[in-house]
Specification:
binds zinc ion; single chain; alpha+beta; 6-stranded antiparallel beta sheet; 278 residues
């Protein structure tokens, strides 16, 4: 199911992230290892959005039933030896547009944890489809988005987060600064001498609402990179990235509306000219 723990683990979480089996329910364990639903994702081979459906396999279904029985049995509590020894699980999906386009996931279960150790196409290739539409509006900052997602898909927290922060600094903050710098009460010297977090606060009213309305996220974005550790960066990456995407979607929407209004205006003036020249 979309946005379930299993769904996010398959399609949104980076490689090598570990899930502690004791911290999740029995049904989540089965759902991750034997996912039965479909996945909405960009298909790099179709170069378009698609739906990936799980390939059914009788042997695997039998394995799932055996595991369900084992974990629900009182003598086999989750904290027992059941998930102690190394075992590999695989999921194979096919693209609904073309059965030859596959999505493969490999998990390793060991020492009471589940981690995703392989994925093809890579998380980066799948997410690239989601963000390539921002290339035109982001300009130079598009490279930061590209690098942020690339580092995140390889589980590099601080590096990926640093690139997201650069988008806030070089794109959103700069856009807001250009709006304010010529105002009569603007103190440019104070701004230029300020640190990143102070600049954010000075321009808060001009920044996209999605970036500043959530206090928790706002404080994470404001922190210096050296104040954050790998785990914190990985934890907040998706939420900050989604906020950036939402803000960019708003800008695209505003641009489209502006363009549509201009088209209507020029169409009306074309009609006016035609009538007047009759
Ligand atoms: Zn496809």
């Amino acid at each position: 199911m979309k946005d379930s723990l299993a769904y996010n683990f398959i399609i949104k979480d980076p490689l090598y992230k570990k899930i502690d089996i004791s911290s999740i329910s029995n049904s989540d364990i089965v759902d991750i290892l034997f996912y039965q639903g479909s996945i909405d994702s960009f298909c790099p081979e179709c170069n378009d959005l698609s739906i990936f459906t799980i390939n059914h396999d009788f042997q695997k279904e039998q394995h799932m039933i055996n595991l369900q029985m084992s974990i629900s049995s009182p003598k086999n509590h989750k904290s027992s030896k059941l998930f102690e020894y190394s075992e590999i699980y695989t999921l194979e999906f096919h693209c609904s547009r073309n059965k030859l386009h596959h999505l493969n996931i490999i998990y390793k279960v060991e020492k009471q944890t589940i981690s995703k150790i392989g994925q093809s196409p890579s998380l980066f290739e799948l997410q690239r489809g989601e963000f390539k539409k921002y290339k035109f509006i982001l300009g130079n900052s598009y490279n930061d988005l590209y690098n942020a997602v690339m580092f995140y898909s390889s589980h590099f927290g601080v590096a990926s987060f640093a690139h997201l922060r650069r988008i806030v600094e070089n794109y959103f903050l700069e856009k807001a600064y250009q709006k304010c710098k010529d105002l009569s009460d603007w103190d440019d010297r104070k701004y230029k001498e300020s640190r990143f977090s102070e600049k954010l606060s000075l321009l808060k009213d001009e920044l996209p609402e999605t970036l500043v309305e959530n206090q928790r996220l706002y404080s994470i974005i404001s922190k210096g990179i050296h104040e954050l550790n790998e785990d914190e960066c990985l934890l907040y990456f998706s939420a900050v990235k989604e906020c950036i995407f939402l803000s960019l979607d708003d800008i695209i929407e505003q641009n489209n509306r502006k363009k549509a209004k201009e088209n209507i205006k020029s169409e009306l003036s074309r009609i006016d000219n035609k009538i007047n020249n009759k």
